[in-house]
Structure formats: C-alpha cells, structure tokens
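Listing S7. Sequence submitted for prediction.
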Amino acid sequence: MANLIYIGPAGAETAAQGWVGAFRITDGEQVWRFNIVPDDGEPGADTWGRILRRKHGGGNLWTPMSFDEKRNLLYVPGGNAAPDLYDDDRPGDNLYTNSLIALDAATVISLGTANSYPTMCTTTISRTLPRCSRQPSAGRRAM
C-alpha cells in the first residue's frame, strides 16, 4: 500500500515475541499487526506446547522483509524460536517461527507459510532429528 510503512523488531530471539506491523506514513497510526509468535486465541497459538513459552518465544524478523507490488504481498522472514539451543523446552511446531510468511499487505491475512508449502523444519538445533511437519495454512487475521 502506497501510504504504509512495514516494520518489526529484529535481532536476538531471547526474551522477544516477534511481530510485524503496518503504520500510516502520514500520522504513524498502526493499521495492523501480525504476531509471528501468536497470542492467545490466534491461529497457530496451539502449536506452542507451553503457553508461557510464547511470551518469550522469539520469532523476530530474520532478514529484511520483501514486498511484491504486483500482488500486494508482504513476505516476512520469521526468525527462530527461543530458546534455539534447547527445543525440548518449547514443544510443538512453534508457528510461525523459522518461516517465510506471505501476508496480504492491505488486510494482513496470512496466505500461507513456507512451513506449509514446502515443509521446513521447526527446530534449529536438536539432540534428535528435527521435527518437521506439514501444517495447512489457516489464513489468519492479525489483531
């Protein structure tokens, strides 16, 4: 969208809960927010085994976002979940971390993640084989 700027926190995953938001250039008002680590009641929240873990679950922006002007899509690179070195402390698929997330830039509906198509692994380091799965995108709207 021509009058919006898209931002989100980047950096280390510890003690963070990643998100990306759209803000009006003219007045700085937030238009929408997409939580890379979902809040209670948002799709994907049930993929985190421990509710408390989501509060500091990581998922900051991994690299800069990309915008497809023709399709009006914002591609968001979700960083790794926290803690990244001990995944037994955060059981589950931990959506939407370690993902490339496609968002409709106007409506913030998630059009899918690379976690779904194709499969990506949900852990970065593990004592066992990484847990990989196919999760169909539910198409979700941010708060």
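Caption to Listing S7: primary sequence and predicted structure tokens for the chain studied. The mean pLDDT is 74. The chain has one helix and seven strands.
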